[in-house]
Amino acid sequence: MFRSLKSIPLVLVITFSAVASAGPLGIGSTATPEMIAGWDIDIRPDGTGLPDGEGSVAQGEGLYEAKCASCHGLFGEGEGRWPVLAGGDGTLDTLHPEKTVGSYWPYASTLWDYIHRAMPYTAPQSLTDEETYAISAYVLYLNDIVDDEFVANRETFARVKMPNEENFYVDNRPDAKNERCFKNCADPKTFEIVTTINGLTPTGHFKEDSGVAANHYEGNPSAASESGMSKVMNNTKIVLSDKATVGKGVYDKACQACHNSGIAGAPKTGDKTAWVSRIDQGMDTLNGHAINGYQGADGVMPAKGGNMSLSNDDVINAVAFMVESSR
Ligand code: HEC
Ligand code: HEC
């Protein structure tokens, strides 16, 4: 949790600059122990950081049913597509691994920390320490890791051994395989780029004819069909309407991060198969979905792609570009 401390000066600038100022810039102030305590909530594998208090499996049952079961199921089986918390033993090396707290998680401390920090999903950090002990105990019980008499507190919780712990180990490989280069280094212009995310990967300094990167089209709509996208579009020459031509600029800025790659279930622009039934819904539906956002079977399309500074017309133009490029 030490890393979070870095954010404290920023918080202070916003919150306290009128009250106190320090240092050469005259902003910020020394974080008080109370402020640091608010950030310093991590629990380590050996139990360091676990607070006072305790909670039993029996107490956890009612709390779990009230606060967790609506998403994670009464027995941790997961309602609908919400995460499964229990079961999955022995599935990790099968074709259908089921990662749960019991089958996968290395340390009980992570469970306490995660529930305390992040759950319930709609009200993170609303649980007291006692409630977190009780609910954590109950989730361990659902996974047959503790029995129904178990009472979790600093001592007992730190002693819990998780079934999958031994399959985790410290990865001490270096971040980069190569020695850092200080002289006679390779010229970036000679790098072969095999894949880029259009508009995200900085490619300006790469070699002119290095595949995708060099095909990066820059603001020229008619270039789209000769560009990296032509691969996606099966080399069909596409003539865009005026609306779609304008829309391409919006698309590059606000939509391509998902729709060029197909990340998280977004239909790839230019992929006819992905678009045919979508286009059948009619432009009004597509525009409505793009403007207001929706959750479909493949994923979540955020309203306006998450860019609320776009006007409805911007989005409609971008949809026109996507549809015309994907027929
Ligand atoms: C509104 C639905 C909802 C409720 C209620 C809820 N959770 Fe979750 N829970 C989620 C979602 C969504 C995730 C996945 C979050 C993510 O991956 O960022 C999650 C993840 C988890 C995980 C990690 C699962 C894994 O293996 O990665 C645990 C443990 C967990 N929740 C426990 C709880 C507990 C305990 C409660 C009650 C105090 C609770 N949750 C209440 C939706 C919910
Ligand atoms: C964060 C990723 C993301 C961004 C950014 C994004 N989309 Fe999407 N979009 C999706 C996903 C995921 C779907 C598929 C949802 C489904 O059908 O399950 C989708 C679907 C769509 C659809 C098909 C709707 C339908 O009814 O089939 C349109 C149209 C669309 N997006 C337009 C846009 C436009 C326009 C932008 C930019 C303004 C944009 N998207 C930005 C993720 C994104």
What does the model show?
By secondary structure, the protein is mostly helical. It folds into 3 domains: 2-39, no CATH class; 54-167, Cytochrome c-like domain (Cytochrome Bc1 Complex, Chain D, domain 2, Orthogonal Bundle), CATH 1.10.760; 212-324, Orthogonal Bundle (Cytochrome Bc1 Complex, Chain D, domain 2), CATH 1.10.760.10. 36% of the residues lie in helices and 3% in strands. It has helices at 8-16, 33-39, 57-67, 69-72, 108-118, 129-142, 154-158, 212-215, 228-232, 242-254, 256-259, 272-280, 283-292, 312-324; strands spanning 54-56, 151-153, 294-295, 300-301. The strands form 2 sheets. The chain has a two-stranded antiparallel ribbon with strand order 1-2. Strand 3 (294-295) and strand 4 form a beta hairpin. Helix 3 (57-67) packs across helix 6 and helix 5 (108-118) packs across helix 6. The longest helix is centred in the middle third of the chain and has 14 residues, at 129-142. The protein starts with 7 loop residues before the first helix and ends with a helix. Residues 1-20 and 209-236 have low confidence and may be disordered. The structure holds heme C (2 copies).
